[in-house]
Amino acid sequence: MRRVNHRWWAWVRLILLGLVLAGISGVVMVLPLLPTEQVVIEAGGVVPRDISAPRRVSYESAILTAEQQERAAASVQPVYTSPDDALARQQFDRARQVLDYLGSVRADTLASPAQKRALIKAAPDLADLPADMIDNLLGLSDDGWNRVEHETLRVVGVAMRSEVREDRLVEILEEQVPDLISLDLSDEETVVAVALVQSFVVPNSSFDPQATADARERAREGVGAVLRTFEAGQVIVREGEIVEPLDIEVMDQLGLRQPQTSWTDFAGAILLAMLGTVLLFLYLARFQSEVLWSGQRLLLLVSLLSVFVLGEGLMLPGGEILRYLSPAPAMAILAVATLGPHAGVATAFFLGGVAGMIADNSLEVVTYTVLGGVVAALTLGRVERISALFRAGAFAALTHVLIVLVFYLPQDSGVAHPSGMLVAGLAGIANGGISASLALGGLFLIGPLFDIVTTMRLIELSRPDHPLLQQLLREAPATYHHSLMVASLAEQAAERIGADALLTRVGSYYHDVGKITRPYFFAENQLEGVNPHDRLDPRTSAEVIVSHVKDGVDMARRYRLPRRVRDFVPEHHGTSWVSFLYDKAVQLAGDTASIDADDFRYQGPKPQSKETALVMLADGCEAAVRAMRPTSAEEVEEIVSRVFFDRISDSQLSECDLTLRDVESAREAFISALKGVFHPRIQYPRSEGGANA
Questions:
Q1: Are 673 and 488 in contact (CB under 8 A)?
Q2: What is the DSSP secondary structure assignment for residue 357, as one 8-state letter?
Q3: In terms of C-beta density within 10 A (0-12 exposed, 13-18 middle, 19 or more buried), how is residue 41 classed?
Q4: Above 80 in pLDDT, residue 412?
């Protein structure tokens, strides 16, 4: 039941902290964090005060350029198709046929004038001819008719070869056709010829929308960029005036306007931040799940990201140079140093996405932030020296410079203003140093605040002048030297199997600090022939021996050692036996029934990590070899192997993640080191003076 409740609380904690991170990120994406000189206004609003340009600016006005382009496009005349030659021939042939028909009607001697008028009206092309025009046609002489017929065909051919548009048809028929009639015709012949030509001239050119659109587009493309320039201090718009779109444009160029925000802006930003948070958690669940399920680590992750998101919100809107100085790689370095490499990479991507949104969807800012952080995370490695932090910062600085070059060189601005590229590059270099320095300071703060074991904190704890180590040296010097030996053994084994060697060494220094309370109850601190256990019964002696673990935990808490270092105190004995006292108690009692075996066991827990398990094995091997004083290398190997066998058979290593290969590597490391320390010495012959060499 307790395990179910713990799992339920872990999910609740994960969801709550995820919502906190998403909420902070979403708000920072939308709202500026510091008061600014920006005004909240839209086109059509009234300006509350004079707004002047803070600096000189020259920019391409999209509004004026668009207006100029539209004027150029509007000046382009509609494009029509070329005259249709096939239609011209068709109308010419039709005119010949109709004229032949009219000639036959005129020549018909049997038809009366009324019948001739009816026959002419029956022709489709002549149905609109007025009655008086038909009478004029019939009244022409044969020579006159021949001239009219010839001139009609000629003018129809000329007119139909030229462009006749639908919208200009009336103009052509009423103005141009009469001008085409030969002056050799009489007035009566001219009137008839004009009427006949007008019957056969039809539109032969239509509007071409595609060609017109193409011509207008070419006209737009031919318009160059329209530049607007404002000098520093020049008034853009005065108090009380109505703001025009052009005013909005220049204010946006100078960053003087803060767009109005609505609930939809917040909703969209928070949803985007929630998506980023979910992706962050999914990545960590796949590659480094302990970060999510450890409340301490999850709180550290969310706290670090929230602080750096707020920092991005303060710096990115502050100007072009500040965006290059934003120390995002420090986030990745801190995450790697405290949580692990996958956390460093994941936080770099998360912070980069947020930074891009803050910087108005800038791809450059996203690339700059993400790649700077990822490179810092991947080049950091294990932080065992301060120089590692600055090495990672140097690689991040180099990455920043390359990104600046990538985004500046293809642009005209990079060529026209090389100083801008130079300043951005120098800011990127400075960013690497700033990030490493912030990470160094952050590590000193994070360790005590979150009880996290950092390299800086371990280095500080490993110093011989630490008050607790000094007390151990004064009160229990033999235990102090025993701890140094255990540290040397365990550290060598940790390096062989890939465990945290620095943590192992520091944990070894403090694993027996509980012996400070009663140092002379432990064999290494006893004077020759003086053993206080001789005056105590086995159960009391076992109680004193076992209590050094509890005393050590209390002392470690009093000196505020990190939890992972404190774990070495109880776990280096696990739940093992104080076997020699148990055997003594059984001997005195005569049987095992009257002896409670639990009185002779340590309370544990068993080692939970590779590091504490190595210290357990090193502690047992060093004590056994020192006590048995082997006379050969084979005896050293036998003693070490027996200690390993006893710990494994007693299931002391069942809860840590040491493999059989790790155990064997550790055994070999211990044997090699102990052979060099506890080797048999050559007995030099005694000189006559009585002194040994």
A1: yes
A2: H
A3: buried
A4: no
Q: Taking residues 280-298, report their average pLDDT.
A: 91
pLDDT at position 527: 66
pLDDT exceeds cutoff 80 at 187:
yes
Interval 39-73: pLDDT, tens: 666 777 777 778 888 777 888 888 888 889 889 88
CA distance 307 to 33: 13
pLDDT at 38: 62
**The tokens of 586 are what?**
């059984």
Question: CB–CB of 370/331 below 8 Å?
Answer: no
Predicted confidence (pLDDT) at residue 508 exceeds the cutoff of 90: yes
The secondary structure of the chain in percent helix, strand, coil, rounded to multiples of 5, reads 70, 5, 25
Among 623, 676, 669, residue whose Cα is nearest residue 494: 669
- 601 phi/psi in degrees, rounded to 5: -120, 145
State the pTM of this model. 0.64
Residues 6+ apart with CB under 8 A from 289: none
Two tokens, residue 385: 């020296």
Read off the pLDDT of each residue in 454-479 and give the average, rounded to a whole number: 90
Contacts of 592 (CB under 8 A, 6+ apart): 586
Round to the nearest angstrom and report the end-to-end CA distance of the chain: 70
Residues paired with residue 205 on neighbouring β-strands, in sequence order: 165
In the chain, ranges of CATH 1.10.3210 domains: 462-677
Torsion sign (Cα): 623, 624, 626, 628: positive
What CA–CA distance (Å, rounded) separates 407 from 421? 9
Q: Over range 640-649, report the average pLDDT.
A: 94
Cα dist. 260→266, 355, 359 in Å? 11, 20, 17
Residue 649 buriedness (CB in 10 A; 0-12 / 13-18 / 19+): exposed
Mean pLDDT across the chain = 85
Name the strand (E) or helix (H) holding 577.
Answer: none
Are 204 and 84 within 8 A, CB to CB? Answer: yes
CB 172 within 8 A of CB 128: no
d(CA 68, CA 312) in angstroms, rounded, equals 40
462-677: which CATH topology? Hypothetical protein af1432 (1.10.3210)
What local confidence, expressed as pLDDT, does residue 592 receive? 64
Backbone angles phi, psi at 289, to 5 degrees: -65, -25
For residues 296 and 564, give the distance between their C-alpha atoms in angstroms, rounded to a whole number.
13
Is the model's pLDDT at 378 over the cut of 50?
yes
Task: Please give the radius of gyration of the chain, using alpha carbons only, rounded to the nearest integer.
Answer: 49
Other residues' Cβ atoms within 10 Å of the Cβ of residue 677: 13
Point out which residues pair with 237 in neighbouring strands.
51
